[in-house]
Amino acid sequence: MKGNRKSKEYLFVDGYNIINSWENLKEISKVDLEQARTTLVEILAEYKHYSGIEIFVVFDAYMVKGNNRSEEEYKGIRVIYTKENELADHYIEKALDEMGREMRVRVATSDWVEQQIILSRGGIRISARELQAEIEDEMRMVNRKRKRLNTRNDISIGRLEDQVLHKLKDWKGK
Protein backbone atom coordinates (compact mmCIF):
# COMPACT_ATOMS: atom_id res chain seq x y z
CA MET A 1 0.00 0.00 0.00
CA LYS A 2 2.75 2.44 0.91
CA GLY A 3 4.70 1.81 -2.27
CA ASN A 4 1.89 2.52 -4.70
CA ARG A 5 1.19 6.08 -3.57
CA LYS A 6 2.14 8.49 -6.35
CA SER A 7 3.14 11.25 -3.96
CA LYS A 8 3.24 11.70 -0.23
CA GLU A 9 -0.11 12.49 1.29
CA TYR A 10 -0.64 14.59 4.39
CA LEU A 11 -3.66 14.49 6.67
CA PHE A 12 -4.37 17.18 9.26
CA VAL A 13 -6.94 16.21 11.88
CA ASP A 14 -8.79 18.77 13.98
CA GLY A 15 -8.58 16.68 17.15
CA TYR A 16 -11.40 18.06 19.26
CA ASN A 17 -13.71 18.33 16.24
CA ILE A 18 -13.22 14.61 15.58
CA ILE A 19 -13.59 13.70 19.27
CA ASN A 20 -16.89 15.59 19.38
CA SER A 21 -18.07 14.00 16.11
CA TRP A 22 -17.26 10.32 16.70
CA GLU A 23 -19.79 8.85 19.13
CA ASN A 24 -17.35 6.49 20.87
CA LEU A 25 -14.80 9.29 21.46
CA LYS A 26 -17.50 11.72 22.56
CA GLU A 27 -18.62 9.25 25.24
CA ILE A 28 -15.03 8.73 26.44
CA SER A 29 -14.44 12.49 26.57
CA LYS A 30 -17.39 12.98 28.92
CA VAL A 31 -15.50 10.90 31.48
CA ASP A 32 -11.84 11.58 30.59
CA LEU A 33 -10.79 14.02 27.86
CA GLU A 34 -7.16 12.88 28.02
CA GLN A 35 -8.26 9.29 27.35
CA ALA A 36 -10.34 10.45 24.37
CA ARG A 37 -7.27 12.24 22.93
CA THR A 38 -5.09 9.17 23.50
CA THR A 39 -7.66 6.88 21.88
CA LEU A 40 -7.90 9.14 18.82
CA VAL A 41 -4.12 9.28 18.46
CA GLU A 42 -3.87 5.48 18.82
CA ILE A 43 -6.49 4.99 16.08
CA LEU A 44 -4.67 7.43 13.81
CA ALA A 45 -1.28 5.81 14.50
CA GLU A 46 -2.62 2.43 13.46
CA TYR A 47 -4.19 3.99 10.37
CA LYS A 48 -0.87 5.66 9.48
CA HIS A 49 0.93 2.35 9.84
CA TYR A 50 -1.27 0.69 7.20
CA SER A 51 -1.93 3.66 4.90
CA GLY A 52 1.47 5.38 4.85
CA ILE A 53 -0.22 8.80 5.14
CA GLU A 54 1.63 11.45 7.18
CA ILE A 55 -0.78 12.47 9.93
CA PHE A 56 -0.86 15.60 12.08
CA VAL A 57 -3.48 15.82 14.83
CA VAL A 58 -4.03 19.34 16.16
CA PHE A 59 -5.65 20.09 19.52
CA ASP A 60 -6.73 23.56 20.61
CA ALA A 61 -5.03 24.98 23.67
CA TYR A 62 -6.81 28.25 22.86
CA MET A 63 -8.17 28.80 26.37
CA VAL A 64 -5.06 27.63 28.24
CA LYS A 65 -3.43 30.71 29.77
CA GLY A 66 0.25 31.11 29.02
CA ASN A 67 0.39 27.96 26.92
CA ASN A 68 3.04 27.85 24.23
CA ARG A 69 2.59 25.65 21.19
CA SER A 70 3.97 22.18 21.75
CA GLU A 71 4.54 19.29 19.39
CA GLU A 72 5.41 15.69 19.98
CA GLU A 73 5.70 12.58 17.90
CA TYR A 74 3.74 9.56 19.02
CA LYS A 75 4.02 6.33 17.03
CA GLY A 76 4.71 8.29 13.86
CA ILE A 77 1.90 10.82 14.37
CA ARG A 78 2.68 14.49 14.89
CA VAL A 79 0.57 15.69 17.84
CA ILE A 80 0.30 19.48 18.08
CA TYR A 81 -1.18 21.53 20.91
CA THR A 82 -1.74 25.11 19.78
CA LYS A 83 -0.57 28.09 21.78
CA GLU A 84 -2.78 30.38 23.82
CA ASN A 85 -5.26 32.28 21.60
CA GLU A 86 -4.60 29.97 18.63
CA LEU A 87 -7.34 27.68 17.35
CA ALA A 88 -6.58 24.36 15.69
CA ASP A 89 -8.30 25.81 12.60
CA HIS A 90 -5.80 28.68 12.46
CA TYR A 91 -2.82 26.37 12.85
CA ILE A 92 -4.11 24.14 10.05
CA GLU A 93 -4.81 27.14 7.80
CA LYS A 94 -1.22 28.37 8.22
CA ALA A 95 0.11 24.91 7.40
CA LEU A 96 -2.07 24.82 4.27
CA ASP A 97 -0.76 28.21 3.21
CA GLU A 98 2.75 26.74 3.33
CA MET A 99 2.09 23.44 1.63
CA GLY A 100 -1.47 23.23 0.27
CA ARG A 101 -0.98 23.85 -3.43
CA GLU A 102 2.31 21.98 -3.73
CA MET A 103 1.38 18.80 -1.90
CA ARG A 104 -1.65 16.58 -1.44
CA VAL A 105 -3.08 17.79 1.87
CA ARG A 106 -6.37 16.65 3.34
CA VAL A 107 -7.98 18.10 6.44
CA ALA A 108 -10.44 16.18 8.60
CA THR A 109 -13.04 18.43 10.22
CA SER A 110 -16.80 18.70 10.22
CA ASP A 111 -16.70 22.48 10.67
CA TRP A 112 -18.41 23.74 7.48
CA VAL A 113 -16.75 27.19 7.51
CA GLU A 114 -13.36 25.58 8.00
CA GLN A 115 -14.05 23.19 5.11
CA GLN A 116 -14.62 26.18 2.80
CA ILE A 117 -11.36 27.80 3.92
CA ILE A 118 -9.51 24.52 3.38
CA LEU A 119 -10.77 24.29 -0.20
CA SER A 120 -9.82 27.91 -0.92
CA ARG A 121 -6.26 27.27 0.27
CA GLY A 122 -5.62 24.23 -1.88
CA GLY A 123 -6.50 21.51 0.59
CA ILE A 124 -9.00 18.70 0.34
CA ARG A 125 -11.62 18.50 3.04
CA ILE A 126 -12.85 15.31 4.62
CA SER A 127 -15.61 15.21 7.21
CA ALA A 128 -15.30 13.42 10.54
CA ARG A 129 -17.77 10.78 9.33
CA GLU A 130 -15.82 10.25 6.08
CA LEU A 131 -12.56 9.86 8.01
CA GLN A 132 -14.13 7.32 10.34
CA ALA A 133 -15.50 5.33 7.37
CA GLU A 134 -12.12 5.50 5.60
CA ILE A 135 -10.30 4.18 8.67
CA GLU A 136 -12.87 1.42 9.20
CA ASP A 137 -12.61 0.39 5.52
CA GLU A 138 -8.81 0.29 5.74
CA MET A 139 -8.95 -1.86 8.89
CA ARG A 140 -11.46 -4.27 7.28
CA MET A 141 -9.16 -4.62 4.27
CA VAL A 142 -6.14 -5.23 6.52
CA ASN A 143 -8.07 -7.86 8.50
CA ARG A 144 -9.13 -9.64 5.27
CA LYS A 145 -5.51 -9.71 4.09
CA ARG A 146 -4.39 -11.00 7.48
CA LYS A 147 -6.99 -13.79 7.38
CA ARG A 148 -5.93 -14.80 3.85
CA LEU A 149 -2.28 -14.93 4.92
CA ASN A 150 -3.12 -16.95 8.02
CA THR A 151 -5.14 -19.40 5.90
CA ARG A 152 -2.23 -19.77 3.46
CA ASN A 153 0.18 -20.28 6.36
CA ASP A 154 -2.12 -22.90 7.92
CA ILE A 155 -2.29 -24.76 4.58
CA SER A 156 1.50 -24.58 4.21
CA ILE A 157 2.02 -25.80 7.75
CA GLY A 158 -0.44 -28.63 7.08
CA ARG A 159 1.54 -29.69 4.01
CA LEU A 160 4.77 -29.47 5.96
CA GLU A 161 3.30 -31.62 8.73
CA ASP A 162 2.24 -34.24 6.14
CA GLN A 163 5.75 -34.27 4.66
CA VAL A 164 7.32 -34.63 8.10
CA LEU A 165 4.89 -37.43 9.04
CA HIS A 166 5.71 -39.33 5.83
CA LYS A 167 9.43 -38.97 6.49
CA LEU A 168 8.99 -40.15 10.06
CA LYS A 169 6.97 -43.14 8.86
CA ASP A 170 9.65 -43.92 6.27
CA TRP A 171 12.38 -43.56 8.87
CA LYS A 172 10.46 -45.64 11.43
CA GLY A 173 9.92 -48.37 8.82
CA LYS A 174 13.67 -48.72 8.19
Strand content: 15-25%
Structural class: alpha/beta
Strand order of the largest sheet: 3-4-2-1-5-6
Label the overall shape.
Answer: elongated
Summarize the structure in words.
It contains six helices and six strands. A six-stranded mixed sheet has the order 3-4-2-1-5-6. The model is unreliable at 1-6 (pLDDT under 50). It is an alpha/beta fold. β3 and β4 form a beta hairpin.
Blueprint (SSEs and pairs):
Blueprint: E1 9-14, H1 15-21, H2 23-31, H3 33-51, E2 54-59, E3 70-74, E4 77-81, H4 88-99, E5 104-108, H5 112-120, E6 124-126, H6 128-173
Helix pairs in contact: 1-2, 2-3, 3-6
Which features characterize this protein?
single chain, 174 residues, alpha/beta, 6-stranded mixed β-sheet, 6 helices, 6 strands, 59% helix, 17% strand, elongated, disordered N terminus
Quickly describe the structure.
With 174 residues, the protein is an alpha/beta fold. 59% of the residues lie in helices and 17% in strands.
